[in-house]
Amino acid sequence: MSSQAQEPTLTVDELAARAGVTVRTVRFYSTRGLLPPPVIGPRRVGRYGPEHLSRLALIEELQVQGMTLSAIERYLDALPDDLSAHDLAIHRALVASWAPDPAEEASWTELERRAGRALSDADVRRLEAMNVVSGAGEGFRVDPGLLRLGVALLDVPISHETILAARTVLLDHARSTAHQLTALFRDEVWGPYLEGEDDPERVESMKALSAHMQPLVVQALVTAFQRSLRDELRAAFTSEG
């Protein structure tokens, strides 16, 4: 960590203006424990610093990715207490570069255009059950990363319950894999960036490295899963024969 941390100088009004939020939001986050308390200066005026500003930016990024406040609270609780503003900025860069595309608004006509086919009420209900779409006013919120897969599953001749059960299995194992990969990434890659003095280009370097690693990790996961599934199917049919 840098030994040249900037002293807190911002009032709550200045912090809110810099972060693009309201003072009420800052106080609410502080009450929830999402922001550390300010440093109390002369005349009992609270002062905020770069760490508060970076933490607000990270909270905003996590909200953009669809996390609830409770989930964000758990996420922030798991971070080390002594992260500097620069470290938090690096963390935000990692979140942004690995996060899926955010949900998009679409009318029924636009949803059908993106799906490449006409959709019945039953089709939409199945897509909703798979969390591919959700109702939003007169239209829908669409997960662009899942839409193609969800539409393909509409014609798969297996029960909807089996599809949902398979989704649960995949999500559970994906979370476990992501947790372990994050630990490896933090220890082997992030660590060197947290040593020594602050480097103005460190955030961009970390973001570029993260973006470079993402397709490699995805390809490795897909390949490993394909080979494991092939072995499981071969073993299952061999034992039945």
List keywords for this structure.
two-stranded antiparallel ribbon, mainly alpha, 3-stranded antiparallel sheet, Multidrug-efflux Transporter Regulator, Chain: A, Domain 2, 10 helices, 241 residues, 5 strands
Description:
With 241 residues, the chain is mainly alpha-helical. The chain folds into 2 domains: 12-99 and 187-229, Orthogonal Bundle (Multidrug-efflux Transporter Regulator, Chain: A, Domain 2); 104-157. Helices cover 65% and strands 6% of the residues. The protein contains 10 helices and 5 strands, in the order H-H-E-E-H-H-H-E-H-H-E-E-H-H-H. The strands form 2 sheets. Strands 3-5-4 form a 3-stranded antiparallel sheet. A two-stranded antiparallel sheet has the order 1-2. It starts with 11 loop residues before the first helix and ends with a helix. 17% of the residues are buried. The mean pLDDT is 78.
Fold blueprint:
Layout: H1 12-19, H2 23-32, E1 39-40, E2 46-47, H3 50-64, H4 69-77, H5 85-98, E3 104-106, H6 108-115, H7 121-129, E4 133-136, E5 139-142, H8 144-153, H9 160-193, H10 202-240
Antiparallel strand pairs: 1-2, 3-5, 4-5
Helix pairs in contact: 3-5, 5-10
CATH topology of the largest domain: Multidrug-efflux Transporter Regulator, Chain: A, Domain 2
Overall spatial form: globular
Widest β-sheet, arrangement of strands: 3-5-4
Q: Briefly, what CATH class of the largest domain?
A: Mainly Alpha
Q: What assembly state would you assign to the polypeptide chains in this entry?
A: single chain
Helix/strand order: HHEEHHHEHHEEHHH
The biggest sheet amounts to: 3 strands, antiparallel
Total number of domains: 2
Report the count of strand segments.
5
Task: Work out the strand percent.
Answer: 5-15%
Instruction: Tell me the CATH architecture of the largest domain.
Output: Orthogonal Bundle
The SS-based structural class is: mainly alpha
Distance between the termini: 62 Å
Q: Detail the poorly predicted runs.
A: none
Percent helix range = 55-70%
| Number of alpha- plus pi-helical segments | 10
Q: Report the mean per-residue pLDDT as an integer.
A: 78
Radius of gyration: 23 Å
